[in-house]
Structure formats: structure tokens, C-alpha cells
Amino acid sequence: MNPINMTRRGFLKRSGSAGMGTAAVVGGLGHLGAATAQAQDDYKALVCILLAGGADSFNMLVPLGNSEYQEYANTRRDLALAQSSLLPLSGTTRNGKSVGLHPAMAPLQSGYEAGRIAFVANTGPLVEPTTPEVLGNGAAKLPLGLYSHSDQIAHWQTGTPDARLPSGWGGRMADLLDYTNSNPNISMSISMAGTNLYQSGTMTQQYTVAPDGAIPQVQGLQGEDVNEERSTAISGIFGNAYDSMLRRAYQGVFNRAQAANAQFSQALGSVSPFTAAFGADPFSQAMQTVARTIAARNQLGMNRQTFLVLYGGWDHHDELLNNQAAMLAPLSAGMAAFQSAVDELGLGNQVTTFTTSDFARTLSSNGRGSDHGWGGNHMVMGGAVRGGQVIGDYPDLALGNPRDTGRGVLLPHISTDEYFAELALWFGIAPSDLDIVLPNVSRFYSPLSGQMPLGFMA
Amino acid sequence: MNNEARRGSGFQNYAPLSRQCRRVVAAIALAATAGFGSFTNTVQAQSQQPSPEAVSNFIRFIQALLERLEALGVDVDALIAERRAQQEADATRPPQSSPGDGSSNASKPSAAAMNSASRFLSQAGMGGSYQDITQVAQMGEAAWLEQQFAMAPGYTMPLMEEWRVQFIALYGDGEEFESEEDDVENDESCDREDDEDSEISEDDTDDEIDTDADDAGDEDEGVEDSVEGDEGEDDAEGEDGENDERCIEPLSLYDFESNSADFAWYQRVVHSEDTVRQRVATSLSQLFVISRVTEEVAEHSELRGSYYDMLLRNSFGNFRNLLLDVTLHPGMGLFLSHVNNAKSNPELGTFPDENYAREVMQLFTIGLYELNLDGSRRLDSNGVPIPTYDNNDIREFAKIFTGLTFNGPNPVFSNRPEPEGREADFGLPMIMVEQYHEPGEKRLLNGTVVPAGQSGMQDIEAAVDNLFNHPNVGPFVGKQLIQRLVTSNPSPGYVARVAAAFNGEGGTPRGDMKALLRAILLDEEARQDPSMNDNAVGKLREPMLRHIHILRAFDASSSAGTVVGYAGIYEEIGQFLFSSPSVFNFFQPSFSPNGELRDAGLVAPEFQITTTDSIVAITNMVNNMTFGEEVTSYDGAISFLGRADLQLDREIFFSINVPALVDMLDTVLTYGTLRPDTRDVIIAAVEQAESPRERVYRAIYLITISPDYAISL
């Protein structure tokens, strides 16, 4: 792959991550990028949609064949969608099942049929390859805090379900790739979701943008309102050599904001409107802001970017059917509009979007909704995706089947390590660097095998 | 500063001035003896080489000050006479052996005592004004805390009801408002406000300052306005041609009712005397989280109001009762879905909801791992942390929390939102419907078995006792309350002392909240002088507490006398009561920002919501509070466009001596922890602003945006 990454790895190893203060490092490695300038058309973006709360994804990708549907309906009882309402997907899964989508996901059905969306079935955090037999006899090493929101949502972000790491796999990718960007102030990790673990690197921090794209500016420091006395005073205060580490940390956030916000705002302001129509809902607006940021990549000096978009509220312990339908419609429309906008930019093959979520939910009902589960179904979208297929085996949904750990909480077939590794390799992480991004990956996949782990990326 | 004779001589140069000017000089003398730092030098410098322009500006400035004082009803001549008499008496008294702090008033607390009291008010309460701080300093912190413990709670539900009645009287009880009606009703309330405005004689000054604010880039104009404002008196919002505080379209009754809990909370936290109880309840709302991400919690103010009042009621009670009340509150029942949670049904294949069972253990009481008294994790023989519970325990606890439904006339156990006939009373604890409660024995933690055949409420009490008596609760809850009130990184010894107090080591019952709070707030680690270079000291102020602190520090009021809330403050600063994105609060106690803090193993939870965008919003929030853009604000039933009026008489009085002003603000806002270089920068900037109010606003703005203030040491 990219020989520069080998150099980069060597640099990281030499420098040692722990001793490097963030202030010194944010953007401070830009000269490396300058020395090994990348072609601008190498641009790639990876967009993570976090369905926070644990999306009930066995009601998103649903078995459609009569016997499998019956099994689904028997297990889900009052949570089952009507067979006739499901939107069929062409073909069958690897294990011979036909599947359909939730009726609110029509735009994604089209994307699937057009070959731009793939599903990855029954995926979740695993510490090591885990068979139902090993799990059954209690010998399996399991993710920390299984079924708890905070832990599972963290595992999806860190990629290390056996350790509570302070950094995420997106942030570690940025540690490796940020040098390809020429901007000293704005991170390649752009968050529409506030501070998050996924994009926290050992040396890089995320740049936060409001979902609607608004970039706040400190009043009185620029434009017609500029006030020199205030400006001088603020520069003085925020230039102090504070003794307290906490005060320095606050000072650091402020100074990064100052340097970056004006520039970011200006860059986004120069973007022409898209033909693609985005809904007014917050999720669609956030996706539009991502598309606009991608459109401004040259002004921002970006060659690689990750984005995190948060769409919360999927913890449907009750009112599952109504609420899920109401939330899937904007999810589907927003994703479809985003892909259209990216295609307009001519970057269809250079931007890949994927979903994550705390967990799927219990297949059995609590009478009103479902509780916290484990393995779930996910989506990958983009021109570089080998779409129109379901990756992996679609699981049996009968209660008591070997993968049912109780109440229809399914042991995942596919580890998040494999799912993330495929995306990271596409994004430009060298196989030899993959263990920096995903420390456990070699338990599931040989990075130097020359093959992609799951095969959904071209 | 104690050279009274020398200070007096500085003004003799002004002898030939007119009567008015003599009063000016006397007023300066009065101010000079009120404890000003380098005032004498400043004035003497002015008097030795006064450019005609400087003298003229100076005198006009003092005239404005005098007018201001007189507008406030201060009898300046009497004050001057009193001051003269005192000076004469001082002159005949032998010199004090201890020079003191320049204060001739024996009862005035020392600067150190004032700083300590100010810090205590911000740790134990929501901060306070100079007068509040003086009171704490005079009383002593421990005694003041006991007085706070004895105060009656400032509940929110009675206020909400009072305002609801007021609202209906003003606007009727129709759910829908026709726009014509709106206009008519609105005008009435606007008249009311105008009347009140006219009673307050300080409008002129405010208006002038607003003009300054609008032209923040051109402050020279602002100065002229404030001096010559009486002439071409232009309204602050002259371009709009409207009143200073304009009524805006009133809320619908529905919107009023879904927001009144927020208004009531704001009114209480800004104005209520029981600031410690309000602070503790607000902190508990971040431990026992409910949030308006759940629709019913957002829609029904009485869920939030009664939940907050429940926290207030238990803030100085016992943790065991607090946990039981939290468990039975319909707001929690809705948020963590254990209301109308039915026993398992093998035929339907359904099982009890596990949501509350998990979070009550993980977040509200014991956490994920067994803890030592000092908050560190206990390790097994392999050096591995010991989980406190597993998924089987969660399923057992889930059985306990079955059978609860809303109280109120005609209760119906049903998961339908509005079953026919039910009138859920969200102010009452949930009740047990036995036929939906899981029968059979339940296995709790530490080998406790709840026998079959108990009533559902007996089961719940047993589970609450089981959790309450777990040894983790003291260190788990104690450490988090330390983090909310005092410091992000308490030493293990501090946590252990607090946990021991929770456990009843001092002779109080286990779970006694007053003992817990005394241990947290009066501990030597909380009370020792804050060090500016100890990295483990202090915490980042929560954004919403910054807003409240500034309002309290300057006795904010509005035309209706109180400030009860702002529209959109959540969007601005990312934090508001009962608005966290999930049960994990706005930030987690273990959050550590990337960089040297994390490398040093230190946590700083509030940094989780301090991003490059929120930090700018927080900075601008202070700008709006001082120089001020209009925001929609609420006084009870009335919404108006305006902003809180900070009461700045004392500060404006001090503004003729900028170092003294900054030092006083340092005491009130930063307890004397403003760095010398920050202080120098602020003094230089403030001295450039010549209008008194402009100076004060600028000083407040620069201090409260600084890292010195943001991090409370």
C-alpha cells in the first residue's frame, strides 16, 4: 500500500505517544505531510453514523422467506413487522436466506439494488473468535460490560472490547494519517457529535462542528464588530503560561477554537448548494454539513477526513414499532441524500459511509419493546462498496438456537475488528499499521494475508 | 494605602472648584477611603500633570457617578460628612499596631477570609454576591453550612402552580391561541411591564450601556453616550424603535406548562436563599439522571418539577430514602422504563424490562467494580478488578422492578400512553399493582435472597436496602459528589474520609446526607488555600453553573424583579437541567481530555462538553450577559425580550479605580486565584474603557471568560 505509512509507523514508534503533549502535536507534524505531498485526488472520507441507544437492527434487515419469516415472527411476537410490509432485496444471503428491509427504508432499498449499499449481518464486539460452544461452557473471554450502553458504545468506538481505552480507532487512524493534511489547526477528525471516543487519538483530537454547520465565533474579534482592546486582552489572557494543567487544558481548547473556527466557517461559506434535497430533520442536516465539509476539502487542506454523525434515541425499551418507523425514515432519506450530494461532487467512490450502534436488541419482547442485545446488522454505503449483498451469515432467529445467549441476544458472527479493518484498509491504513488502529485485529484476521477481511470494499 | 494624610493632600489642588466640584472631590475622597488600591496614585498623577482634556473627562465622569449615586437615593452629602467626621476621628487616634488591610472597619473580614468564603459559596452553593460572601465570611463556613441545612427548601412546584394561575388569568386557558387574541393580551402584559419599568429610575444608564454594547467596536462613542446621554437620549434599541424589554409573543398554555419547571428551577437557583440545597439537588440530578430525551419527561413539567423537588427534599436527608424515592418516581419510571413493567409472561415470551435494574446498579449506587473505601478498585488474587454484578443479577433485579404504575385517580396498569380513564398524577410516587409483579424469590447481591410471597413494595424496599448497604455506595457516590462540588481529582484519602462519613463513622446513621456534605465541603482538601500550580486541584465549572453564578454574583434581576429562565440556553452552552443526552449525564466522571491531563492520569469530566464550538458559545454567553444581545427571557408567566439586569452599583462605584474593581471581582468570581498576569491584562484593558459601566462589563467579561475563572481551583 502506501509506503509513507511505514515511515509514519516508524515515527510513531520512535516518538512514543505518551510523552507528547497534545498542544505540541496538533498539526505540528504537518511538515511531514508537506515533505511527502499527496495528490489531491487521493482524497478519502469515512463517515460513521452512530445510532446511539442500540438500534433494533433485526427489524431493519428482516428474513423474508416463509419459514425464516415465521421463525422471526414467533420470536419477536408483538414486535414483528408484517411480512407483506417488508421491502424485498434481490438475491439471497451467503447462507441462502432472502431478506427484506423495514418499510421505512425505501431509499436504502434503491441504494442496495443500485449496488451502493451492502449489509453486514450479525456484527458486534468480540474479544476473540467465539463459538457458541465455547460461550456455552463459560470459557469465552467476553467484552467488558456486555449489554451496558456505556461500555458497548465505547467498544464500537475503541475497537477494544477487552480494555477501556481512552482513544478510539478513528482517532488512531488520524494519528497515522493526519500528516497528509496541510491544515495546522483543523483536525481531519470532524465530529458532528461533540467530543467523542471514536475520534480521540493518542495525538489528535476531533474538531467539533454543530450538526447544522454553524461555527460560532467569539464576538467582537472579527468582522465589523472587531474591538482591538478586547482582542488584545483575550490574546493576552489566553497567551499566559498557566501553571495549572486544568487551566492549560481550557486555554488549549479556546486557542484551537480561535484558530480553526474562522477558517472553517469561511471554507464552508464558499460551498455551492447541492441539488440533492436534504430533509430539515437534524440527522439530514448533519449529513448535509458533512457533505459541505467534504466539498470544502481543498480550502481546508484536507486529504483524509473522518466524520462522526450522531443519531440518538434508538433505545426502544418501549414503543418500538412506532418510534423505530418514525426514526428510520429520516435515517434512510438522509443517507440517500448524502450519497447523491457526494456523487454530485464527483467523489462517489472516495467517500464511504457506515453505521455503528451500541448493540442490536433482544429478539424477545418485554411486552412493549426490546432490551439490550449484542450482535446486529449494519450498513456500508458508497461507490467503493461492493453493494447489493449481505456480508456474512444471516443468523437464525429462533429462541434457543446455538447463538442465542438468552432472550434472543445473539452472539455475533462477525467481529467489529473485521468490520473496521476492512474500512481502515480502504481508507489507507497500511496492513502493517493495522494493529495500531485495531490492537486485537490479528485475533480475527491476518493483516498481511493480501485479502480484505470481509470483502465488502472494492 | 494606610497613609490617610497623604491621600487627603492629593485633592487640595482642586480647592478652587465650584460647589459641585467640591462635592465631586469629596466623593472621590469618600471612594478613596473605601478601600481602594492604587487610587491615590492614579488621582495624584492626574492632578500633577492634568491635560485639560483629562481633567474635563475626569470631572464629567465623577459627575455621572454622583448622579448615579443620587438616582439610587444615596445622600451623598451625608455620606461625605460622615466620612469627614471619621477621617478627623482617625487623625486623632494613635496609629494601629497592625496595619491591617487598609480597612478601618474592624468587622470587615480579611481578604483571605473573603476569598475563602467566596470559594465556599461556589463549592457548596451556586456562588453569591459580595454581600453574600461577606455574610459567610463573618459567620464562618461551618456555621453558615448548618444554617443552610436548617433552611426550608425552595420547592419549584408551588411556583409552577402560582405561575400557571397567573398565566391563565393573563391569557386564558385555551390550548390554541389566535393571533389577534395574542396581540391584545400581549399588549396588556407589556403595559404592565412598562409600568414597572418606569418605577425603576436606572433606565437611562442601562440604555446608554446597551448602546455601548451594540457598538462594541467603537467604545469611544459609548463613553460619550454615558456622559452626555441625557441630551440626545436615544433608546438602547433605537433602530427597532421599541422598549428596552419588549414583550414577545406569549407561549401557548401547552408550551408554558411544558417549560414551567425550567423557569421555576431557574428562579430558585438564581434567587433562592437555600443555595446549598439547590446546588446539591442540581448535582444529584446529574447522578440520578432523568432527561427530556424521553418524550413524556420533556412534555410534562410536573414530572421534572416534582422530581427536582424530590431531590431537594432528600438532599439533606438519608441516601436510602433518596434511592427509594428516585426508584418510585414516575419521571424515573418513564425515563428508565420500569413504569408499567410487567412480570414475565411465558405464553407471550416476554420478560421484565432490565433497564432500571442495570442503571440503578451501574450508575446510581455501586458501579461496575468493587471499590475500596478510598475509591480505588479492589483487585482479586490475579490483580484483576472484581465485577460487582453480572447479567444474572440484572435479571433478578429486573424482576423486582415489576408491577409499578402511575398513581392518580383510576390507576390502570398499561403500557399504552393514555389508557382510557387514567389520570396519572406525575407528582405522586408510582404504586404497585401486585398482579403484574414478578412472583417467586429473587436473588440479590452478596447472597441476599428475597423470599417468595412478599408484596411488590416489600421486594422493592429489600432491593433498595440491598444496594444501599453495599460497601461501594460511600466511595462511589461520595467521590462523584466531590467531583460535582469541589474537585475533579480528589486524593484517595479525601474520598476515604467522605466514604467513612457516609458509612456513619462519625456517629451519624449510614447514608446521612448532611454528614456526607459536611465531610465533602469542610474537608481540609476542600478548604486549604487553592494552589495555582497543583495539577490535581480544582475543576472546570459546568457551563450552566457559570451562567447561574454570574447572575447570582451580581444579584441579577429583570423588570419583573426576578430572572427565571432563558430560551435557548441549552443550545448555547450544551447543558441544562434534565437535558443530558442519555442516562450517562452530560459527561462521565472518568472522562479525561486528550493531552497532558490524560497522560498524567487525571480526569476532568466537564471537558467532555467543552469543545471548540461550545467554548466559543460559553464565551459569547458572558458577552450577552454583559454587553448583551437580547434573549427571550421569562418572568413567571411573562416572556419578554431583554436580558438580566446585573446589579452593578458597587462595581460601578469602584470603577474609578480599576485595580480595586478587578480585585473585588477577583474575590467574588475567582476567590483571589486570578493570576497576576491575567490581572494585569484585564486592568490594562479595563482602563481603556472610560464609561463606568463599560469598565465593569469589560472586567466581568474578561474575568469570566478566562481560564482563571473557568477552572475553579
Summarize the model shown.
The complex is a heterodimer of chains A (458) and B (713). Chain A has 458 residues and is of the alpha/beta class.
Outline the secondary-structure elements.
The complex is a heterodimer of chains A (458) and B (713).
Chain A: H1 3-15, H2 22-25, H3 30-35, E1 44-52, E2 61-63, H4 66-76, E3 87-88, E4 99-101, H5 106-113, E5 117-124, H6 132-136, H7 149-158, H8 169-177, E6 189-191, E7 207-208, H9 228-237, H10 245-269, H11 282-295, H12 297-300, E8 304-312, H13 320-344, E9 351-357, E10 376-381, E11 390-391, E12 414-415, H14 416-427, H15 434-437
Parallel strand pairs in A: 1-8, 1-9, 5-11, 5-12, 6-7, 6-8
Antiparallel strand pairs in A: 2-4, 3-4, 5-10, 9-10
Helix pairs in contact in A: 5-13, 11-13
Chain B: H1 4-9, H2 19-32, H3 39-48, H4 52-71, H5 76-92, H6 111-124, H7 130-139, H8 141-150, H9 157-171, H10 179-199, H11 203-214, H12 219-228, E1 246-247, H13 253-271, H14 275-284, H15 295-299, H16 301-314, H17 319-328, H18 330-335, H19 355-365, H20 391-400, E2 404-405, E3 431-432, E4 442-443, E5 449-450, H21 456-468, H22 473-485, H23 492-502, H24 513-522, H25 524-527, E6 539-540, H26 543-553, H27 569-573, H28 596-599, H29 614-626, E7 631-635, E8 638-642, H30 649-654, H31 658-670, H32 676-688, H33 692-705, H34 707-710, E9 711-712
Antiparallel strand pairs in B: 1-8, 2-3, 4-5, 6-9, 7-8
Helix pairs in contact in B: 2-4, 2-5, 6-7, 6-31, 9-13, 11-12, 13-16, 13-26, 14-16, 16-17, 17-21, 19-20, 22-23, 23-24, 26-29, 29-33, 31-32, 31-33, 32-33
Number of strands of chain B: 9
Rg of chain A (C-alpha, Å): 22 Å
Describe the sheet with the most strands of chain A: 9 strands, mixed
Task: Determine the strand fraction of chain A and express it as a percent band.
Answer: 5-15%
Structural class category of chain A: alpha/beta
Strand order of the largest sheet of chain B: 1-8-7
